């Protein structure tokens, strides 16, 4: 059978990994795919570097439009990133009847619905394994491996950069800016690293997983997004004293009322496997009604780990390219006419446990005032830590862990607690998940 011809848009970190792994493992991949997969054309703004990387083995152009309109190209791999030019090129590739592989979670989480609709009309595939958790085959697991299950919840460490920052800060005592720079040098961070540290990248990925897990359209605009920039070293320390680790988690949960979709720093019991995922590694915990909990672990970023997922998509498409479009795996796991309108819940309605830290006067009655406010709002306390004031100080920290309650109750409690004369400054609120 004649080789399947691929056009690669962007030969940066992931693009070069894809080129190299495909070349290195060509024989093995051909044996798996049933025909050879050939990168026939590469587009990159830096043509010189692209020529060096591809060593004269394919055509290199500066204008990506030449790739997406080339009638000889069967599959376009979009590895440029962002949702400007990347979106135009993906839409143009689809309009020209090309199958598309992309690692671009930002693009899919924000414009996925439009892209999948266009692809369906054209009868082409859009594959995106690399868009979530790099080299971990989590999309395939959710879409195919767990297809028998009603997925109940997903919780994942799905941003390598922030996990790397939290681990290095804790283990080596390095400061935030130094570790972020290292993450950028290692190729983990997004072009705009605020996407990583402010939780946006993780929210893109959580949005994609929620869509596939619960059969709902992509709704990134409804996700709650909180990053790690406001996290204090003292909270990491106090959490450890109470037997917890803090991780930036992407969480989605099916409830009677709708879907919770949120990204925020989260306390997790230190004995959970996922609490011990360090560095740029990713891990996703999925709970299905039939299978129970399953855990997927591996490299969530980097050149070749991500290339591994890109090439898995290339092989899938190669195998299915001649299949009737009706009989392919649906883009979002559920048939497109069977998506559900289950709402994504506003943050006020989500239910979880909380860590509260407050700075208070070290005098009798303060704790009673605080606990009365919590009790009035039916918030029950799970554990408490009161620090001894430092030598000569009259103020100290109190840390309270609560049982599960609605976010709106905690917000109301915090508002009242902050008004107490003996409480100084803002109360720090972190969410806590037992993940049991
Ligand atoms: P890079 O910035 O390393 O690579 C992007 C490449 O695209 C660069 O070579 C850039 O050229 C080129 N490019 C930019 N604009 C154009 C254009 N108009 N036409 C052709 N080429 C263009 O990014 P990554 O490889 O890190 O990321 C690519 C995608 O993969 C992103 O969507 C990212 O979110 C995703 N991803 C990345 C992971 C990682 O670990 N890095 C992991 C998982 C997903 P130039 O440098 O000259 O501007
Ligand atoms: N910037 C992303 C991360 C790359 O750090 O996880 C992988 O998607």
Helices and strands in order:
Blueprint: E1 4-9, H1 13-24, H2 26-33, E2 37-43, H3 47-54, E3 59-61, H4 65-68, E4 75-78, H5 85-95, E5 99-102, H6 105-122, E6 126-127, H7 138-145, E7 151-157, H8 160-172, H9 176-185, H10 194-197, H11 200-214, E8 224-225, H12 233-241, E9 244-254, E10 259-269, E11 281-288, E12 292-299, H13 303-320, E13 351-361, H14 366-376, E14 381-386, E15 395-402, E16 405-406, H15 407-419, E17 423-432
Parallel strand pairs: 1-2, 1-4, 2-3, 4-5, 5-6, 8-10, 10-17
Antiparallel strand pairs: 7-9, 7-11, 9-10, 11-12, 13-15, 13-16, 13-17, 14-15
NADPH dihydro-nicotinamide-adenine-dinucleotide phosphate binds next to helix 1.
Model description:
The protein has helices at residues 13-24, 26-33, 47-54, 65-68, 85-95, 105-122, 138-145, 160-172, 176-185, 194-197, 200-214, 233-241, 303-320, 366-376, 407-419; strands spanning 4-9, 37-43, 59-61, 75-78, 99-102, 126-127, 151-157, 224-225, 244-254, 259-269, 281-288, 292-299, 351-361, 381-386, 395-402, 405-406, 423-432. The termini are far apart. With 436 residues, the protein is an alpha/beta fold. The mean pLDDT is 96. The strands form 2 sheets. Strands 7, 8, 9, 10, 11, 12, 13, 14, 15, 16 and 17 form an 11-stranded mixed sheet that branches. A 6-stranded parallel sheet has the order 3-2-1-4-5-6, sandwiched between helices. It is elongated. It has 3 domains: 4-127, NAD(P)-binding Rossmann-like Domain (Rossmann fold); 138-299, 2-Layer Sandwich (Dihydrodipicolinate Reductase, domain 2), CATH 3.30.360; 349-432, ACT domain (Alpha-Beta Plaits, 2-Layer Sandwich). The chain contains 15 helices and 17 strands. The protein binds NADPH dihydro-nicotinamide-adenine-dinucleotide phosphate (NDP) and L-homoserine. L-homoserine binds at residues 134, 159-161, 188-190, 196, 201, 300-301. NADPH dihydro-nicotinamide-adenine-dinucleotide phosphate (NDP) binds at residues 9-15, 43-46, 64, 79-81, 85, 103-104, 130, 134, 187-188, 190-191, 301-302, 306.
């Amino acid at each position: 059978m004649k080789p399947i011809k691929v056009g690669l848009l962007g030969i940066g970190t992931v693009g070069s990994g894809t080129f190299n792994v495909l070349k290195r493992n060509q024989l093995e991949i051909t044996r798996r795919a049933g025909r050879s997969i050939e990168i026939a054309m590469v587009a990159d703004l830096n043509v010189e570097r692209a020529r060096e990387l591809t060593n004269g083995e394919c055509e290199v152009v500066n204008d990506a439009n030449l790739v997406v309109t080339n009638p000889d190209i069967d599959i376009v791999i979009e590895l440029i990133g962002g949702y400007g030019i990347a979106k135009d090129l993906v839409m143009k590739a689809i309009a020209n009847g090309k199958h598309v592989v992309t690692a671009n979670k930002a693009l899919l989480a924000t414009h996925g619905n439009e892209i999948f609709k266009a692809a369906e009309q054209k009868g082409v595939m859009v594959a995106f394994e690399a868009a979530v958790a790099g080299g971990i085959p989590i999309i395939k697991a959710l879409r195919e491996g767990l297809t028998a299950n009603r997925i109940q919840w997903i919780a994942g460490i799905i941003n390598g950069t922030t996990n790397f920052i939290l681990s290095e800060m804790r283990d080596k005592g390095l400061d935030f800016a130094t570790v972020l720079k290292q993450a950028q040098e290692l190729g983990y961070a997004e072009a705009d690293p605020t996407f990583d540290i402010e939780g946006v990248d993780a929210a893109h990925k959580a949005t994609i997983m929620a869509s596939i897990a619960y059969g709902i359209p992509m709704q990134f605009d409804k996700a709650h997004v909180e990053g790690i920039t406001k996290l204090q070293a003292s909270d990491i320390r106090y959490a450890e004293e109470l037997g917890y680790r803090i991780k930036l988690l992407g969480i989605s949960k099916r409830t009677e009322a709708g879907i919770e979709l949120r990204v925020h720093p989260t306390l997790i019991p230190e004995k959970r496997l996922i609490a011990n995922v360090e560095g740029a590694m990713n891990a996703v915990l999925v709970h299905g009604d039939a299978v129970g909990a399953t855990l997927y672990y591996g490299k969530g970023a980097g050149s070749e780990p991500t290339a591994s997922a890109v090439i898995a998509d290339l092989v899938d498409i190669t195998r299915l390219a001649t299949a009737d479009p009706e009989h392919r795996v649906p883009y979002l796991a559920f048939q497109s006419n069977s998506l559900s309108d289950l709402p994504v819940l506003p943050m006020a309605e989500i239910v979880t446990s909380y860590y509260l830290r407050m700075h208070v006067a070290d005098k009798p009655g303060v704790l009673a005032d605080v606990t009365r406010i919590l009790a009035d709002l039916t918030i029950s306390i799970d554990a408490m830590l009161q620090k001894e004031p430092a030598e000569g100080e009259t103020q100290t920290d109190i840390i309270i862990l609560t049982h599960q309650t609605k976010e709106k109750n905690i917000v109301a409690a915090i508002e009242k607690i902050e008004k107490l004369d003996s409480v100084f400054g803002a109360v720090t609120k972190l969410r806590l998940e037992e993940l049991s």
